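Forwarding these from the shared drive since the link keeps breaking.
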Amino acid sequence: MGPMVESAWIAAAAAAVGVVGTASVAIVGFRISRSTNQATIDAAKANTDKTIAAAHADIHSTLDATREGQFADRLSVAMRKSPRVARSKSPLLAS
């Protein structure tokens, strides 16, 4: 083999090693990136689910408190307007 052919084979082998190395790094990087992104998405979903559950519970407790307050207000108004209650001698209504 002549020196030119020998150097061409060396250059081709180096190029092949470079291409294979670049492709393998790209594949490994893609797989690691995909698994990392999936873990991030799963963590974000879990966090969002917890936030929504907490907001749901908070809204329900607020609605329950509002309903109880409205019931007490309506009962109070009804008791003041009722002629039967106004004539009664109940100590609860003495105030």
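-- next protein --
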Amino acid sequence: MNRSLEGRVGRLEQSSGVDDPDQFYLMWCGPDEEEVQAMQAAVDQGLVALDKNGFFPLWPEGGAFCCRWQGSESMPAPRWTTIEKMTDDELTYMLDSVKALQARR
């Protein structure tokens, strides 16, 4: 990537509030809650927004995901993260949630 393009991409990432383009906002719901309902509650509270088509929840300038927490320990707080920064348990629960959501569709 040439220096001019690198600079422009860097400025775009900084101005969007997301320094790492791989980041997403991760929130958890309890094992007896539905991810879609928890995400809708976040939308209703103004924590996340829907895209222009009314689908995929967006954190300001980035993606947001809600996954079902299955651990015996308390749920982690919602936060910006990347796949690389997630714990093994978080990754397992996130993948389980994605698989279950796809199976319901």
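The first helix runs from residue 3 to 15. Residues 21-104 form one domain.

- D.
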